[in-house]
Amino acid sequence: MRVHRNGFREQLAQIMRETPWSKAQHSVDFPIFFSIRAVKITSYIMAVFGICCVVFTEHIYRILPVALGITMIVQGIFETWIGWKTEEYKEKETKLTSNGIVFLILGSVILCNYSNADFIIGAIWGVLSLVKGSEELNQVLYRRIHKAPYRSKLIHCCIELLLGLILLIDPSASIKHHVFLLGIEVFVVSMQNIQELKASA
Prior knowledge:
The chain folds into two domains: 1-12 and 36-55 and 117-201, no CATH class; 61-115. Helices cover 80% and strands 0% of the residues. The protein has helices spanning 2-18, 36-55, 57-86, 96-112, 118-145, 151-169, 171-200. The radius of gyration is 18 Å and the shape is globular.
């Protein structure tokens, strides 16, 4: 079992190095510092979170500003710390540290306006969905050119771009629906991760 896990970890590291990230992330060689067990636990937690978003949409929506603000701040701190430790900012085409700082700022803005944050959250989610959709589109083009499977990526890309446009057109009215859709997406992605981990064990 240890051999399989080590092999999977090496494969994961290789995938991280070779994945066609957006240009600003491609030159950084990120260390794989997590265990397979940690990935499994995180995937199960995210799957539960996805179910909660679908089943308890109204409750999640009520606490969304505080929960999202804190999550973005934590993610910002984490990315900034990793960027600092790996010194990725010394490379010309990187953005991990700068992304962390931006997430810190956005999370703080949401928390400071938590009582009336629907418009801010909708706008932020809309922009992030468009950015994520553009990165998925980059993956689609890359896979298409190299004759690799790309249809699932294309579907994901279209969904992300569509959600981003809807959120930007009417941020406040789209938030509650987006929580529900987000739950479905998080659950599906988590299940895919778990299946891939089981298949590699």
